[in-house]
Amino acid sequence: MDLRVALVQTSLYWESPTANLAMLEEKIAAIEQPADLIVLPEMFTTGFTMKPETVAEPMNFTTFKWMRQMAAQTGAVVTGSYVVKENGNYFNRLLWMQPDGEFDSYDKRHLFRMGKEHEHYAAGERRIIKEIKGWRVCPLICYDLRFPVWARNQQLEYDLLVYVANWPAVRRQIWNTLLQARSIENLSYVVGVNRVGEDGNKLFYAGDSAFVDFKGELLSRRNANEMIIEQTLDYEALQAFRERFPAYLDADRFEIR
Questions:
Q1: What is the Cα–Cα distance from 95 to 84, expressed in whole angstroms?
Q2: Is residue 257 part of a domain?
Q3: Angle at CA of residue 12, ends 182 and 55, nearest 5°
Q4: Looking at the annotation, which residues are catalytic?
């Protein structure tokens, strides 16, 4: 029941899907051990662009097919977000692609107002929780990290919380702190993958991609280098801790409307 996860922490070519897909294909091929889940950054084909009209793709187009190919070749679920156009709207959409070609998607719920993301993209309305090897996984996107209610693990709905991000270095302390906070309050493993390098808006990204266990303890964290970060997560250890410390039984019940 252990889960092998590989995070692809990388710089991105600005607004160049072709270059990014070629680069990422090489990095995925370089993953040393077979992974169950491969996690790419937010907007991995373009960087955090506010020009969706120039880079957006319809579903079942180039990036979708590329992710299906990567999942089939590696035997792993491949996930990350990119810019999608659907029904006249643009979405910062995370795709969850399984090796058998089955997929699901999550549209970013909380759009980064300070970067005017809400002026260019439509917000999502639903979470997804996906199963892989008996693990239940909830994938979210970047700014969602600041909103604990959206991520709340009511009655242990999930075992692993995943954040894909383009989180600038100027706010890295917040990123690092909140990843640990989300794990503690949700009795869950948390994984965060962030990009590195400089984007077309001259923003610098320090990476800090991390694995955090269910007690808020760091299993692995890397700074501003391009790298693949691999970690095996222990399901039995998670369940044993939940049995010893069932704080979720005292949690407040609520609904999001």
A1: 10
A2: no
A3: 100
A4: 42, 108, 142
Q: What is the dihedral of CA 57, 68, 160, 167, to 10 degrees?
A: -40
Structurally, the chain folds into a number of domains equal to 1
Is residue 130 assigned to a domain? Answer: yes
Report yes or no on 256 lying in a domain: no
Instruction: Answer yes or no: is 253 within a domain.
Output: no
Q: Please state the length of the chain.
A: 257
* Domain at 123, CATH number: 3.60.110.10
Q: CA 4 to CA 35: how far, in whole Å?
A: 5
pLDDT for the residue numbered 42: 98
CA distances from 105 to 96, 112, 219, 235 (A): 6, 19, 28, 25
* Adjacency order of strands within the sheet including 130-132: 130-132, 135-141, 160-165, 189-194, 210-212, 218-221
pLDDT in tens, 89-136: 999 999 999 999 999 999 999 999 999 999 999 999 999 999 999 999
Residues in the chain predicted with pLDDT less than 70, given as ranges, are: none
pTM: 0.97
CA distance 51 to 25: 24
